[in-house]
Specification:
The strands form 2 sheets. Strands 2, 7, 8, 9, 10, 11, 14, 15 and 16 form a 9-stranded mixed β-sheet that branches. The protein has 11 helices and 16 strands. By secondary structure, the protein is of the alpha+beta class. The relative contact order is 0.23. The protein has 2 domains: 237 residues, 2-Layer Sandwich (Antithrombin, Chain I, domain 2); 141 residues, Alpha-1-antitrypsin, domain 1 (Roll).
Amino acid sequence: MWCVSVSCILLALGLVERSRGNGLTELDTEFSLRLFQTLTETENNSNLIMSPVSVSQSLRLLQLGARGHTLAQLQGTLGYDINDAHVQEAMSQPQRNLSNSTQGIRLQFINTLFIQSGIKLLPAFTQHALGWYNSSLQSVNFSQINNTQLQQGAADKDLDEVVSGDPGEGVSWGSSAPHMALLSSVVFQGAWQKQFLFSETQNLPFTLSDGRTVKVPMMYQSTEVNFGQFRLPSDHRYTILELPYLDRSLSLLVILPSDRKTPLSQLESQLTGHAVALWDTGLRRKKMDVFLPRFKMHTRVDLKPVLQSLGISDAFNPSAANFSGISDTDGLYISEAFHEASMEVTEDGTRAAAATAMVLLKRSRAPIFKADRPFLFILRHINRGSVLFMGRVMNPAQQGH
């Protein structure tokens, strides 16, 4: 199973999305890829996990209150105007919480807007924020609170580890406390439709990007999966394996360069929203021997320079930011932006450590998919095509940074 929780803190405000109809999904996917590609430029060869939908939900909320050039930059980055009636119609079915204990699935979206005591929000913004996003509003004194206390206000104990990071760690507000902070979070836990068996996990070599190898617990199963082979614009080939979760509404895509000599960076830099939209037509059911490393990771990144490089600059500028649609209070701007995510992939989803059985497995003659070198992954909602989580595994033995 796969266990993920992720959270995005945007100090002073939040974030958004674009266009209409099915094109909206492709635009969101394009934004997800650009966001991920921008992060990979600064994260070098480390493991990485992020939730594009967490960031885009926040950006949508921010668009509701942005005006002028600030709104234009948000629209330009996401590709659509959230205030457009056609866009709102296309998004009339937003991401919903999903909880099914019998199916071993939990997917929860949380949006909490923290406002400095004494600041009054405009009624129209409050109505849209609470009605559409099912958000909660909380009044706080930022001079007496840090990010650890903010996450406690989100009323979800499973977010503790993600938002607060290491025990005692807190976000510094800098020279002045913000007027507003948005905590946008996604939590996911899900059991595989067909679980891997602990008894068939072995310590096998995983080749790192520099050619070195490390021994990692490699899970194994022989099963029917959706599998496809595709080609990049550079003519490099890559393969995709889809592993569904128990309720079949969510799945994990594992994306691996076909040639062992092709660096993962080639795949990361050339993926497009259009290419992702075509994946389903190229996937076929196939009996395969699947090898997937057990891994656990945690990522904490500063989103401010990432969003600025994507074209959202005025929102962080005290003299240029225009959020007059949120409050009559002058000077509202985003002071900081952080994104944190953690996840764990195991045989059945439990977090408990288990002894690795060192046994020789009897393999079938089925084709082999072996993720024994750096790979990408996308956790998506199958029917909507939305990217819930995206990341890369460079070293399964490395738990985070």
